[in-house]
Amino acid sequence: MCADHYSKGLGNQLIGKGIRVSAVSSGNTYFEGGISQSIERGMPDLYKPAMSLNPTNRMGAPQDIAAGVVFLASPVASRFSGTNLIVDGALTMAV
């Protein structure tokens, strides 16, 4: 995962300057006008099996991803640096 290595390296380099670096990796995200909506409407035979692979039986919403970003930017996450927060509803099977 490229974001993981990049955020780790930058996080290590910049933490001494008081700069925290983290990444957020989202899974499939559904939003109005997005590719997932196009596939759902135009290729339902492809969309249904793809959804069945998702452990939460739904795609993420932009708000789900935003919550992770807000968390990492908050003082509560002051010990997080060089982190890659995966917001995918357990879709990722390997580390």
For the report, how would you describe the main beta sheet?
2 strands, parallel
Figure out the total of helices: 4
- Largest sheet: spatial strand order: 1-2
Ends apart, CA distance between termini? 9 Å
Q: What's the number of extended β-strand segments? A: 2
Number of domains: 1
Shape: elongated
Return Rg in Å: 16 Å
Strand content: 5-15%
CATH architecture: 3-Layer(aba) Sandwich
Helical content class: 40-55%
Average pLDDT reading: 92
What is the CATH third-level topology name? Rossmann fold
Identify the CATH class: Alpha Beta
CATH homologous superfamily name? Answer: NAD(P)-binding Rossmann-like Domain
* N to C succession of SSEs: HEHHHE
Summarize the topology.
Elements: H1 2-14, E1 22-26, H2 35-42, H3 44-52, H4 62-73, E2 83-87
Parallel strand pairs: 1-2
Could you characterize what this model shows?
The protein has 95 residues and is mainly alpha-helical. It has one domain: 3-Layer(aba) Sandwich (Rossmann fold), CATH 3.40.50.720. The chain has four helices and two strands, in the order αβαααβ. The chain has helices at 2-14, 35-42, 44-52, 62-73, and strands at 22-26, 83-87. α2 (35-42) crosses α3. It is elongated. The N and C termini lie close together (9 Å).
